[in-house]
């Protein structure tokens, strides 16, 4: 059996890749993909430790997380669409009429 | 332990009855959808608004009735546990549901005028009602699964509400920024929950608490998980370090939505924070994961940053946005002044923070709704543009003065007592430095709040105020009601703080 530490390292690595993508990408669609990556890191943990602990709580929650991630993307794509209509681009830095 | 379904049939009638305030909100949202799909071309703004208000008022009524009757409280058989303990109906849940329903009622009454010319107001009302439903669920969540699901259920309609004015660049930009930071912080929260699960093997808060003592080597994993869950709470409550969406989202969003987010959504974040950390993570304090200190630092930074940034603003709406960050800092004291084992003082401080959120729900919603009215009149956004409005709209300006002084904590309105009890509770719990920072920043806040009052009442108009004559019924009623409640909460503060402290005491029992 693969020791649980390996899963933790894998999921932490994927989480950090997602975070890196969010901090560096300017395209809103890449941004969405990076956020998905971070959520999937959580899903890996949940499934791995569900197996480790011998209960199904984690696997069931993983299904909820996947469903919510899909819902989040649906809303996100809608916002990206109105962003494109208003600003003519999907660059998140273009939308800067208010200061940060 | 496996997830085999229990043999006995779940008693649905009982669950629905226990969750009645939340169920009523959800049903109203669906009825609004139904009305709109039966008459897709009839705009029915009045019918939709009245239906929505009927729903939120009945949810408010049931929540208050349950609170008075003692449902789910220690005196009447203790908290009602539903769905294998994933949902728990108790004083805290009902108290916060009352806040959400009151704020939603005021916001819907105001939206009736604000979205008068909107092509399809039904989508606005139903999104608002569904977000309120999800907040009600957040307040009764007793498992990290229901916490995450209900938090997302509240966030998704909120993103759409902020970006609701599809052709307005400010609204779209606000929605984008809120969504981007929301997506990141919900991923952080999910990862934190997965780490807590990795360390403890459970997601139900009482079971997490029971397992924390025996995590052994996974102590560090649990610590990182707890910090990340705190990050999720910080996003929802607009506290440092996930606060920077708030000024943008509140400034760009339609003003009724800003009112809703800065009052109800913030309170929902605290409802989750209070329950998760008091019920689930309290034993972590014993094994060196000092989240109390973490929240203490966040509270200080949030109070200082919110109030100082508010003092430098030139636009009233943006000033209120930063002031709402500052108020998140005050409420964070309720989580910061927690020490392991001191149940009585912990309950006092947390109850005071809940009571402050209750008062804040009225005074802050009222202030943002006044801005909604000014936006409708087409007067500008800066302090100078507000000059002389009192001549044209004395009642509304009087209400705005009440909100400003109450937010600052002057001893004439509800906001004074809630802050006083909160700071006093912090001192009694031994956290005098939190109270000191709170008192100093409150004094500073009087500076920028009084600027609004000065502009309204003392300065002469700089712009043409001819449009101000128009009196939008719903908006006016909402502002006046919020103002009256803010004043009445000074003599009527006793029952609020007693209910809040009893609810908090049940968490620490």
From TrEMBL, chain A:
<feature type="transmembrane region" description="Helical">
    <location>
        <begin position="30"/>
        <end position="49"/>
    </location>
</feature>
<keyword id="KW-0472">Membrane</keyword>
<protein>
    <submittedName>
        <fullName>NADH-quinone oxidoreductase subunit NuoK</fullName>
        <ecNumber>1.6.5.11</ecNumber>
    </submittedName>
</protein>
<dbReference type="InterPro" id="IPR001133">
    <property type="entry name" value="NADH_UbQ_OxRdtase_chain4L/K"/>
</dbReference>
<feature type="transmembrane region" description="Helical">
    <location>
        <begin position="6"/>
        <end position="23"/>
    </location>
</feature>
<keyword id="KW-0812">Transmembrane</keyword>
<dbReference type="GO" id="GO:0030964">
    <property type="term" value="C:NADH dehydrogenase complex"/>
</dbReference>
<dbReference type="Pfam" id="PF00420">
    <property type="entry name" value="Oxidored_q2"/>
</dbReference>
<keyword id="KW-1133">Transmembrane helix</keyword>
<comment type="similarity">
    <text>Belongs to the complex I subunit 4L family.</text>
</comment>
<dbReference type="GO" id="GO:0042773">
    <property type="term" value="P:ATP synthesis coupled electron transport"/>
</dbReference>
<keyword id="KW-0560">Oxidoreductase</keyword>
<keyword id="KW-0813">Transport</keyword>
<dbReference type="InterPro" id="IPR039428">
    <property type="entry name" value="NUOK/Mnh_C1-like"/>
</dbReference>
<feature type="transmembrane region" description="Helical">
    <location>
        <begin position="61"/>
        <end position="84"/>
    </location>
</feature>
<dbReference type="GO" id="GO:0016651">
    <property type="term" value="F:oxidoreductase activity, acting on NAD(P)H"/>
</dbReference>
UniProtKB/TrEMBL annotation, chain B:
<keyword id="KW-1133">Transmembrane helix</keyword>
<feature type="transmembrane region" description="Helical">
    <location>
        <begin position="430"/>
        <end position="449"/>
    </location>
</feature>
<keyword id="KW-0472">Membrane</keyword>
<feature type="transmembrane region" description="Helical">
    <location>
        <begin position="178"/>
        <end position="200"/>
    </location>
</feature>
<feature type="transmembrane region" description="Helical">
    <location>
        <begin position="289"/>
        <end position="308"/>
    </location>
</feature>
<feature type="transmembrane region" description="Helical">
    <location>
        <begin position="122"/>
        <end position="141"/>
    </location>
</feature>
<feature type="transmembrane region" description="Helical">
    <location>
        <begin position="12"/>
        <end position="35"/>
    </location>
</feature>
<dbReference type="GO" id="GO:0008137">
    <property type="term" value="F:NADH dehydrogenase (ubiquinone) activity"/>
</dbReference>
<feature type="transmembrane region" description="Helical">
    <location>
        <begin position="47"/>
        <end position="68"/>
    </location>
</feature>
<dbReference type="GO" id="GO:0016020">
    <property type="term" value="C:membrane"/>
</dbReference>
<feature type="transmembrane region" description="Helical">
    <location>
        <begin position="320"/>
        <end position="342"/>
    </location>
</feature>
<feature type="transmembrane region" description="Helical">
    <location>
        <begin position="220"/>
        <end position="245"/>
    </location>
</feature>
<dbReference type="InterPro" id="IPR010096">
    <property type="entry name" value="NADH-Q_OxRdtase_suN/2"/>
</dbReference>
<dbReference type="InterPro" id="IPR001750">
    <property type="entry name" value="ND/Mrp_TM"/>
</dbReference>
<feature type="transmembrane region" description="Helical">
    <location>
        <begin position="147"/>
        <end position="166"/>
    </location>
</feature>
<dbReference type="GO" id="GO:0042773">
    <property type="term" value="P:ATP synthesis coupled electron transport"/>
</dbReference>
<feature type="transmembrane region" description="Helical">
    <location>
        <begin position="354"/>
        <end position="374"/>
    </location>
</feature>
<feature type="transmembrane region" description="Helical">
    <location>
        <begin position="257"/>
        <end position="277"/>
    </location>
</feature>
<protein>
    <submittedName>
        <fullName>NADH-quinone oxidoreductase subunit N</fullName>
    </submittedName>
</protein>
<feature type="transmembrane region" description="Helical">
    <location>
        <begin position="395"/>
        <end position="418"/>
    </location>
</feature>
<feature type="transmembrane region" description="Helical">
    <location>
        <begin position="80"/>
        <end position="110"/>
    </location>
</feature>
<keyword id="KW-0812">Transmembrane</keyword>
């Amino acid at each position: 059996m693969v020791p649980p530490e390996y899963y933790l390292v894998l999921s932490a690595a994927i989480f950090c890749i997602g975070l890196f993508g969010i901090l560096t990408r300017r395209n809103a669609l890449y941004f969405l993909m990076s956020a998905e990556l971070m959520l999937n890191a959580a899903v890996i943990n949940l499934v791995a430790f569900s197996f480790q602990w011998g209960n199904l709580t984690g696997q069931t929650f993983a299904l909820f997380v996947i469903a919510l991630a899909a819902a989040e993307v649906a809303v996100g794509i809608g916002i990206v669409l109105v962003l494109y209509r208003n600003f003519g681009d999907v660059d998140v830095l273009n939308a800067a009429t208010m200061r940060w | 332990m496996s997830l085999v379904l229990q043999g006995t049939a779940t008693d649905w009638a009982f669950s629905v009855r226990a969750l009645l305030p939340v169920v009523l909100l959800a049903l109203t949202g669906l009825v609004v959808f139904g009305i709109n799909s039966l008459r897709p071309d009839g705009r029915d703004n009045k019918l939709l608004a009245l239906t929505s208000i009927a729903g939120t008022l009945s949810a408010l009524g049931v929540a208050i009735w349950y609170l008075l009757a003692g449902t789910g409280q220690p005196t009447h058989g203790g908290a009602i546990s539903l769905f294998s303990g994933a949902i728990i109906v108790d004083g805290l849940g009902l108290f916060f549901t009352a806040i959400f329903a009151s704020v939603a009622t005021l916001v819907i009454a105001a939206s009736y005028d604000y979205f008068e010319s909107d092509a399809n107001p039904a989508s606005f009302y139903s999104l608002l009602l569904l977000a309120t439903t999800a907040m009600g669920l957040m307040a009764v969540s007793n498992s990290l699964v229901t916490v995450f699901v209900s938090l997302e259920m509240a966030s998704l309609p909120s993103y759409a509400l902020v970006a609701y004015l599809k052709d307005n660049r400010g609204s779209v930009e606000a929605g984008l920024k809120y969504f981007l930071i929301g997506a990141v912080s919900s991923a952080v929260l999910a990862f934190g929950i997965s780490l807590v699960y990795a360390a403890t093997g459970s997601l139900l808060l009482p079971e997490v608490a029971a397992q924390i003592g025996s995590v052994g080597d996974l102590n560090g994993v649990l610590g990182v998980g707890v910090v990340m869950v705190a990050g999720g709470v910080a996003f929802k409550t607009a506290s440092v370090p996930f606060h920077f969406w708030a000024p943008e989202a509140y400034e760009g969003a339609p003003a009724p939505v800003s009112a809703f987010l800065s009052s109800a959504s913030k309170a929902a974040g605290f409802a989750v924070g209070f329950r998760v950390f008091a019920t689930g993570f309290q034993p972590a304090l014993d094994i060196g994961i000092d989240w109390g200190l973490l929240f203490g630092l966040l509270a200080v930074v949030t109070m200082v940053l919110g109030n100082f940034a508010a003092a430098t603003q030139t636009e009233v709406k943006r000033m209120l946005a930063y002031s709402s960050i500052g108020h998140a800092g005050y409420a964070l004291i309720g989580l910061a002044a927690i020490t392991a084992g001191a149940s009585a003082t912990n309950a006092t401080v947390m109850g005071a923070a809940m009571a402050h959120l209750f008062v804040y729900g009225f005074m802050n919603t009222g202030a943002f709704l006044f801005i909604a009215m000014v936006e409708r009149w087409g007067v500008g956004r800066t302090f100078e543009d507000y000059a002389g409005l009192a001549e044209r709209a004395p009642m509304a300006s009087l209400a705005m003065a009440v909100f400003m002084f109450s937010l600052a904590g002057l001893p004439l309105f509800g906001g004074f007592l809630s802050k006083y009890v909160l700071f006093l509770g912090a001192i009694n719990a031994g956290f005098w430095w939190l109270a000191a920072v709170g008192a100093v920043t409150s004094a500073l806040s009087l500076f920028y709040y009084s600027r609004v009052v000065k502009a309204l009442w003392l300065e002469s108009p700089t712009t043409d105020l001819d449009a101000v004559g128009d009196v939008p019924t719903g908006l006016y009623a909402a502002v006046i009601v919020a103002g009256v409640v803010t004043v009445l909460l000074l003599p009527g503060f006793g029952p609020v703080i007693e209910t809040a402290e009893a609810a908090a005491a049940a968490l620490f029992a």
